[in-house]
Amino acid sequence: MRAFAKSDIGKVRDMNQDSFYISKPEDKVQLFIVADGMGGYKGGEIASKLAVETSKNYILNNFDSIEHDRESILNLIKSAIEYANLVVFEKSKEIPELENMGTTLDVCLVIPNKVYIGHVGDSRVYRKRKDFFRKLTTDHSYVQKLVSDGTITKEEAYNHPKKNMLIKALGCSSFVEPDTTVKGFLKDDVLLMCSDGLTNMLRDEEIAKIISENPVEACNRLVEAANNNGGFDNITTVIIL
């Protein structure tokens, strides 16, 4: 297994509030995490780093002590995200300048032929399998709710003025309910984890095309393309092969 990552400040923001973690190929636990922070001065940066570090440590410290069946692994990821949420929430209460900080969080734990996913917010996980490019997470956003309810179309959602409004984020209250799921991850599949700084700048078909052309170089090329389209936010991409 190979993984590549790129995080970029973009062309507009004065600080990169995204954070990520990728395992080394030789690591026993193949773990990958992306977080996109939000909040005032340094709040989002602190929230995303705390969420990544806390969830990573929780999973790595507890992985050997659980059964490695579907339910136990998903419960481990869920517990890690809930714990990270509490850590970020409590930190926001300690320091006035960090009040209302929060972050998205996506966790992917890869075990042969499967990827176990935990998700909060509007960062995303995609899987490319042959000619099919599929989003494996559902945005916790106001606009996604409108799409799910049939109020607006996916095309209308792309340019909606409130598309960055989240209805669920990590660290904003003492408890969060993450989405968890397990999907197949087979030979020649490609996983993409990314913050919305990518998906707000590029359509899914553009992202899929860049990955298809050269998955090894895709992280750099996706960030470059997002910046060329405006780079209005921080951009983070993780590719897992």
Layout of secondary structure:
Layout: E1 3-8, E2 18-22, E3 30-38, H1 43-62, H2 70-94, E4 102-103, E5 105-111, E6 113-120, E7 124-129, E8 132-135, H3 142-148, H4 154-158, E9 179-185, E10 190-194, H5 196-199, H6 204-213, H7 218-228, E11 235-240
Antiparallel strand pairs: 1-11, 2-3, 3-4, 3-5, 5-6, 6-9, 7-8, 7-10, 10-11
Helix pairs in contact: 1-2, 6-7
Average of pLDDT: 96
Which ranges are low-confidence, i.e. pLDDT below 50, for 5 or more consecutive residues?
none
Give the full name of the CATH homologous superfamily: PPM-type phosphatase domain
Reading the helices and strands in chain order gives EEEHHEEEEEHHEEHHHE
How would a crystallographer describe the biggest sheet?
A: 6 strands, antiparallel
Number of helices: 7
The value of Rg in angstroms is 17 Å
Query: Which term fits the overall shape?
Result: globular
Total tally of structural domains: 1
Report the helical percentage: 25-40%
How far the N terminus sits from the C terminus, by CA atoms, comes to 6 Å
- CATH structural architecture: 4-Layer Sandwich
Task: State the oligomer.
Answer: single chain
CATH class: Alpha Beta
Q: DSSP strand (E) fraction?
A: 25-35%
Please count the beta strands (DSSP E, at least 2 residues each): 11
